[in-house]
Design goal:
It contains six helices and six strands; from the N terminus they run βαββαβααβαβα. With 198 residues, it is of the alpha/beta class. The chain has one domain (6-191): Rossmann fold. Strands 2-3-1-4-5-6 form a six-stranded mixed sheet, with helices on both faces. The longest helix has 17 residues, at 66-82. It is globular, with a radius of gyration of 16 Å. The relative contact order is 0.16. Residues 194-198 have low confidence and may be disordered. Bound molecules: guanosine-5'-triphosphate (GTP) and magnesium ion.
């Protein structure tokens, strides 16, 4: 019998806090930076029998050429295609405080925001995708539910977001406030063993 490794992959735009979250989840330090484009290669750490994978961020990068950005996109897509069988969950991390502005800007230019394209790509692959709505500390308390409703709607889920607490985990990785995500991961790991069908 082949025992496959099981992976939980962190993915998202540059500078949203993937590596900060990775540290919270695994206790493994990877470089965290004020500038985007800090993580260059998929980086793995094992917790129990699960590999967590920190991916490079896509999107705006200082000093990165258009070609480099395309390379990062390709790397991400390829990673998911080549490792689809091992990946039990994809955690798409966003900066909840700037997600809507960035999406509006892209749509204003007539483009599909890449964060939305990526979400749909992962869902279409049949992966279990969870949204880590990070940097919630930067959103005023009174605006939190409204912002999460809009984000959830943008990703094709019917608001209110509170219907989707198995898919959307508000958090502040920097402050170590990631309980909703821990609970989603916990449920996933207790409900499913390696090699099961879905
Ligand atoms: N305010 C706030 N800042 C955060 C939070 N999480 C991470 N950051 C900050 O965001 C910046 C980027 O964090 P990283 O973890 O390096 O982001 P990344 O997504 O791994 O970036 P790349 O590797 O470039 O793709 C750092 O300055 C972090 O301290 C958060 O919850 N709130
Ligand atoms: Mg990183």
């Amino acid at each position: 019998m082949i025992i496959m490794s099981r992976e939980i992959v962190l993915i998202g735009r540059s500078n949203v806090g993937k590596s900060t979250l990775f540290w919270e989840l695994t206790g493994t330090k990877v470089r965290v930076g004020k500038r985007p484009g800090i993580t260059k290669y998929p980086f793995k750490a094992k917790v129990g029998d699960i590999f967590y994978v920190d991916m490079p961020g896509y999107g705006f990068m200082l000093k990165a050429s258009q070609a480099d950005q395309e390379k990062t996109k390709d790397l991400i897509v390829q990673y998911f295609e080549q490792n689809a069988e091992e990946i039990i969950m994809a955690i798409q991390v966003i900066d909840a405080a700037s997600f809507l502005d960035i999406a509006d800007r892209w749509e204003g230019r007539g483009e599909v925001p890449f964060e939305i394209e990526l979400w749909e790509f992962l869902v279409d692959m049949g992966l279990d995708v969870v949204l880590a709505a990070n940097k919630m500390d930067r959103i005023a308390k009174v605006d939190v539910d409204g912002a999460l409703d809009l984000i959830c709607e943008r990703l094709g889920m019917m608001p209110p977001w509170t219907q989707w607490t198995d898919k959307i985990a508000p958090m502040s990785a920097k402050r170590g406030q990631i309980q909703p995500l821990r609970s989603i991961i916990g449920k996933k790991l207790s409900g499913k063993k390696a090699g099961s069908d879905n």
